[in-house]
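ok so dumb question maybe but i'm new to this and my supervisor (M.) told me to 'just get the structure for Major facilitator superfamily domain-containing protein' and walked off. so i did the thing. is this what she meant?? sequence i used:
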Amino acid sequence: MSTKPSDAGPSRRAAPPSILAPLQRQTSLTDPAALVVAFPELQRGMSATSTKSRRAANAQNTGGRRASAISEGSEEKDLADRGDEKGDLEASDGGQEEPTFPDGGTEAWLVVFGGFWTVFCGFGLAGSIGAFQTLYRTGFLVEYTDSQIGWIASLQSFFTFGLSCFTGALFDKFGHRPLIASGTFFLILGFCMLSLCTQYYQLMLVHATLLPWGANLLFMCPIAVVGQWFQKRRGLAFGLMSTGSSLGSVVWPLILANLPQRIGFGWTCRLMALICGLCGITAFCLLKTRLPPRPAGSFFYFQAFRSLQYNCVVINFICFGFAFFAFLTYIGTYGQLAGLGSLAPYLLIIQNGSSVVGRLGSGILADRIGTYNANIIGNALFVIMYFIWLAVKNTTAGLVAMVVIIGIAGGSFVCLQPPLAVMTATDMRYGGTMMGQALFVMAFAQLACGPSFGALLGSGTPMERYDSFYKGIVLGAVLSLVGAASIWVARWDRERRFWAKA
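this is what came out, is it supposed to look like this??
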């Protein structure tokens, strides 16, 4: 877009070269207005210049103003046609194009509602992997060790999140509808095939292919779609959408804890396939993007790893990914070894149910005090509860209270993952790619957490395994502490003022 004044009168003035020159050297954007779109932080620094520009324009004659308006109108139309990766464009009083977001309205909230049902299936199943672990340990695979069964859960978690590096880039290029349709198909087929499984290798094959493929495609799409509709209320929107994950993490374990004994494992899986189909159809109809796909590019954006802030966020994902998913996988086993009986399978359900508070509350809190600050509070709570787990032991009331608080803290971690990864981007065209590659790295921690945590328990008697549980708890507590420290460093790199919103 040209910023050269027209012959008949003055057009809007570009920002001072001293402000834009460094960014023009670092990026491919040579147009000052395009730089403002890509780096909205410039708008505040250039506000004084924009004010002077408006005053100068108002001092010109009427003919000059008309010619300038015609010139500006054609330029704005050209920029709108080219599309922008941050949002719709709106001309400000100073003539600068600024990205705008609906931040509400029927259409925007219907998108959130559609995303609710995709994460219900996608992320809800990822949070329910511990229910499968407990079911297989007491049913099909009673002769296998915790570490061996843990590979099933770990492989599903690894591929669910590891494929995100490809899903994020595919969304950027092709949009959400092909991904939602494919994810729904994979989940339906996966549960139908799971209903026929009776052997260890069969279960592992389904949990490592069809189920994680479908779950990944479903939960990644709404993260990017909702981000196109909200800016000021993005934390609230993500919080409301992520409560679908909490509901799914309650419903799926409840189904697995009760229905196999009544209707059989096969029909339980077929019922889950039906539920996934209905949720996928609903999401397909309601989710809608506002921006065109970006040009084809790499599945990875390695330049992001030059940023200290982004690296610290990725370290936080790795450490908390290990600790949190190890907890989800083995809390039911811990309850059984602690002698809680029929209450043991419901510990995971209680944890997932309480995460609603963390997901919704952290989203609202992030809008008020900043995403980093809200995440730090949740991280600190999670670390404290993990260490307290060492002292709780088999006290029923204390164990339930600890599970509830960890659920709240874990919900905060899950809810704030997408905005944390995206807000480190200096070029929002790569927001989906940066989110995907961060989850890809985290997936390796999830791959290791199940077998390694199970190996620390050993293969002895139930009492011997219970006495060895502290080893896994200490490992998870230390890693979560490292993750909390890394997010502090990321926040400090972004904003040095202690009480500032960040």
